[in-house]
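hi! just following up on the protien thing from before. the input was this:
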Amino acid sequence: MSLKVEYKGVDITSSVDVDKCWIDQYAEEHGDTLKIIFADADGLWDAWAPKIGDKIRVYDDHVDSGVQYVRSIYPSVGRYEITAGSIPVSADLARSSGWQQVTKLQLAKEIAERHGLKLMTYGITDHKFLYLRQENESDFPFFQRLCLLEGDAFLIYDGMLVLYNEAYIEGTEPKQIVSLDADNKPEYHNEQTITALSIRNGSTEFTYGSDLSRLKSVNIRVYIDSKGTAERYATNLYHHFNKMKKGGTFYATPITDGYTAGSVAGIKTRGMASFDGNMFIYHVRHDMTNNKTKVFFRCL
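and the predicted 3d structure came back as:
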């Protein structure tokens, strides 16, 4: 495995000594991240004077971080640590704006263009919002709130904003069947779910589910224009708060690109049959220097 490093579009592999490196790729609620530590006895990085927002990319024959943007720099004697993220630094700016009669895809396109991203969509139903208000909030947390209501999610990878409907992706055929044993060091969890969810905006309220024994109530900041809209929002939030309750993690060695954040795979366990079935992979961590991949999944 030959690890390559590009900085500001230039291959600097031959000039640096990578001590440790992790690439975290997320399918939802988080941009991808990169943490890389260089051995730097000669102070080379300090002479290069890297800056927040510089582009960095790390890759090998199997895994590619895509272009990411430097977020923090931690120099010390003999080493230099850089963390980066796939979300452009421009997205940190808090904004205030308002829209009337705007669709979800219009918003997605506006946000993507503002931050130099290419928009890709999968299974999206383009509902219209009668009125929206963004108040002193950065773009992606604002858009994330809307996606939760709509049953959608997004990831940001290598200059792309990928917007998808969760039910659409979860309903796709598994790309592979994964058989887990002790060598994968699997860990599982199965937690109690909520039984009903109530949403409220001003005087408008709607409850999804008839068993109120474990009811969760949520105030939302989006105008509810009809009973159908209320039911859609409540149903999607009910799924959101329950979807992570059953799942787990496992390791794959050597490092592999066979597990992709945002994909569906089958799972076959040893002695844990209640977890057999399909899983959604929502986070993959590649330990580039120790040559292993950790997969985080939720059961479908």
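Residues 227-242 form the longest helix (16 residues).
The chain has four domains: 4-86, 91-169, 172-191+245-300, 192-241.
cheers
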